[in-house]
Inverse folding.
């Protein structure tokens, strides 16, 4: 069946073509209150607390301290095969990420944005930013600049981007499952450890 | 402790979800009630999830919870009422970004589209991310027959696939199994050393599935949402398997029911804020992938080919049915299953369908024929817990009653039940009839009551009722009479 035929079928099920499309429901006041409330107070503090609540490890550092902070996390984890995303803000940015991602010990990436309410980081695909860097290795180190943090998911999705990336991935904590008797286990297919370093 | 699950299962995985029709719930429900293990697991797990859902709703939305879910319901309602427009918009936007959009009228067409894509791409090793809609179209068996090795990668689905079992919950597919069943399946099918430790079991699955991911040339996923504005497919997973499927293999096919559309990103935000909180008590699932096209220029991963198969398979008939249209609002969070006292007792397999629980009881007859599931709308106490739990405000009890009404109208119920309905209707149609009926009932029940005022056994058609519970006998003086007496008394 062609897509047009499916549209025609659905249109006839809905009683035929309508002259004027009905407007989308107006934004609900309660919803707006809920979304806006996420921007109250210190965004950085709220982000840190929310990210920890979903199981991420969070560190804070000043811009000059980023290299040391990342190096310390990697060496403590014994990670020697490391892929660096082009947006991670380190001297090694863009290196180590062209081999087999399944062989990596860790991936270090920047983020496109972070969401305070849920402790989420948003990763946008693009050249030099392979998605596998933060999917395949057991450790993902994400560098968040304080000014990248927004309040709510709605705020993030409403922020315009230059060009829509082929993939946006919102990451909220380390990989988890509770499929066996509801017992929480981290590190199933994605990274078992997510370390977020907040700069500034 | 006795282990009842070593007994051979009576149905194959296929028969569990696709029983011979017409399917009646009764027989499998009775078996589930006699299965102490199922009673313990399903009851415990659903209660825990339901309690968590209520807590999280209060913490996140507080007094605004009702208003927000009503808003989400309005968005879904609006989208369904204009689904033709949004489908067109989605197809245009997705094609513009290089996604190949297909349409399938039914399960057979969807399967042949998928097999065709696989054959053209020369793909033989497929990894799948959990998807109920691919269960609905019975895709795995078709892939295997076509020579495409297919591995489920969600931990729960992987275990079910290994153990030749079928999902019994739309979010927590192996809610009816425990760790010992997993340990046995792993040692039998994978040759792993037997262990009951969930952490070790997960590590075994991770190792096995890594190899499957690494060698995969095809990924098949469902879709939690389709965003019309950007032509994006959204999947929500916790383990990372969905993300891996969306990123690594060179070909990805997303099979998605047409009801999964939302107009734009603003609407998506509302749905995502509700889905995980309602489903698993998380603010968002660990990975939410919003994919609006295949690998872009200069990118080293992401699929080279991205296909979206828009599936009708009965959905446009539900759209046509104005009384039932709301059933398509469902975002498959599973909250109504967890809240349902019937689901908790009979488990998912009793429903004999891909979608169990209250939403399944409404949706299944609509998708597979009302006459095929004659007693399914009765698998509810109409207590309303499902409606209360629903994040998009589907009035499930109303839809269940509508189904019951259709069964009555089509004379699909037995003569005894019809007789009872008639008598009941007659008795309620006048004050004296009502009083007479109540007097008869009072006489019968009070005569049969024991010293404690309970009726332990009723004869005839009432026997089924008293087999599992005692009935309190009516008071000697009916409330009507007491009320008259009380209202004669003067207030101070």
């Amino acid at each position: 069946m062609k897509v047009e035929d499916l549209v025609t079928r659905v249109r006839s099920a809905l009683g035929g073509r309508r002259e004027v499309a009905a407007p989308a429901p107006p934004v609900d006041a309660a919803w707006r209150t809920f979304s806006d409330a996420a921007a109250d107070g210190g965004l950085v503090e709220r982000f840190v607390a929310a990210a920890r609540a979903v199981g991420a490890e969070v560190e804070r550092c000043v811009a000059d301290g980023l290299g040391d902070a990342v190096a310390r996390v990697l060496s403590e984890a014994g990670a020697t095969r490391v892929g660096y995303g082009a947006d991670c803000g380190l001297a090694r940015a863009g290196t180590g990420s062209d081999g087999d991602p399944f062989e990596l010990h860790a991936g270090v990436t920047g983020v496109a944005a972070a969401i305070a309410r849920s402790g989420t980081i948003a990763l946008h695909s693009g050249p030099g930013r392979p998605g596998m860097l933060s999917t395949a290795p057991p450790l993902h180190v994400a560098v968040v600049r304080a000014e990248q943090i927004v309040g709510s998911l709605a705020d993030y999705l409403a922020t315009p981007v230059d060009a829509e990336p082929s993939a946006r991935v919102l990451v909220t904590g380390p990989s988890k499952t509770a499929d066996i008797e509801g017992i929480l286990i981290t590190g199933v297919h994605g990274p078992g450890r997510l370390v977020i370093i907040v700069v500034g | 402790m006795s282990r009842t699950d070593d007994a051979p299962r009576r149905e194959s995985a296929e028969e569990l979800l696709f029983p011979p029709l017409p399917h009646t719930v009764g027989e499998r429900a009775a078996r589930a009630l006699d299965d102490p293990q199922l009673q313990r697991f399903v009851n415990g797990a659903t209660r825990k999830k339901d309690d968590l859902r209520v807590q999280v709703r209060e913490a996140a939305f507080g007094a605004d919870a009702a208003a927000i879910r009503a808003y989400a319901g309005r968005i879904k309602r609006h989208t369904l009422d204009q689904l033709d427009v949004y489908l067109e918009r989605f197809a245009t936007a997705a094609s513009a970004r290089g996604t190949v959009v297909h349409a399938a009228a039914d399960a057979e067409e969807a399967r042949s589209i998928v097999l065709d894509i696989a054959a053209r791409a020369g793909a033989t090793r497929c990894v799948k991310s959990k998807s109920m809609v691919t269960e609905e179209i019975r895709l795995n068996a078709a892939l295997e027959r076509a020579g495409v090795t297919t591995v489920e990668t969600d931990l729960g689905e992987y275990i079910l696939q290994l153990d030749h079992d079928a999902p019994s919950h739309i979010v927590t597919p192996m809610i009816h199994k425990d760790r010992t069943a997993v340990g046995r399946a792993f040692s039998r099918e994978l040759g792993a050393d037997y262990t009951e430790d969930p952490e070790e079991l997960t590590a075994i699955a991770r190792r096995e599935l890594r190899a499957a991911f690494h060698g995969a040339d095809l990924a098949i996923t469902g879709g939690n949402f389709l965003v019309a504005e950007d032509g994006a497919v959204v999947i929500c997973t916790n383990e990372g398997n969905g993300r891996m499927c969306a990123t690594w293999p060179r070909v990805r096919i997303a099979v998605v029911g047409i009801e999964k559309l939302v107009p734009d990103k603003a609407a998506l935000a509302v749905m995502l804020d509700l889905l995980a909180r309602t489903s698993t008590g998380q603010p968002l699932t660990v990975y939410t992938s919003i994919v609006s096209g295949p690998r872009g220029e200069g990118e080293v991963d992401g699929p080279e080919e991205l296909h979206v198969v828009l599936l009708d398979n009965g959905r446009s008939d539900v759209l046509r049915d104005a009384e039932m249209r709301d059933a398509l609002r469902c975002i498959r969070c599973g909250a109504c299953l967890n809240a349902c006292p019937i689901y908790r007792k009979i488990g998912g397999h009793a429903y004999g369908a891909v979608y169990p629980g209250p939403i399944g009881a409404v949706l299944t007859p609509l998708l597979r024929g009302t006459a095929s599931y004659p007693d399914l709308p009765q698998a509810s106490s109409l207590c309303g817990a499902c409606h209360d739990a629903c994040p998009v405000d589907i009035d499930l009890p109303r839809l269940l009653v509508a189904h019951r009404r259709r069964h009555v109208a089509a004379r699909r119920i037995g003569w005894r039940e019809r007789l009872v309905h008639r008598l009941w209707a007659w008795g309620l149609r006048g004050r004296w009839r009502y009083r007479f009926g109540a007097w008869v009932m009072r006489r019968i029940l009070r005569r049969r009551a024991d010293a404690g005022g309970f009726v332990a056994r009723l004869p005839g058609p009432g026997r089924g009722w008293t087999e599992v519970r005692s009935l309190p006998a009516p008071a000697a003086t009916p409330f009507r009479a007491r009320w008259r007496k009380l209202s004669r008394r003067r207030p101070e």
Q: What stands out?
A: Chain A is about 25% helix and 25% strand. The CA atoms of residues 40 and 64 of chain A lie 28 Å apart. Chain A touches chain B through 77 residues (CB under 8 Å).
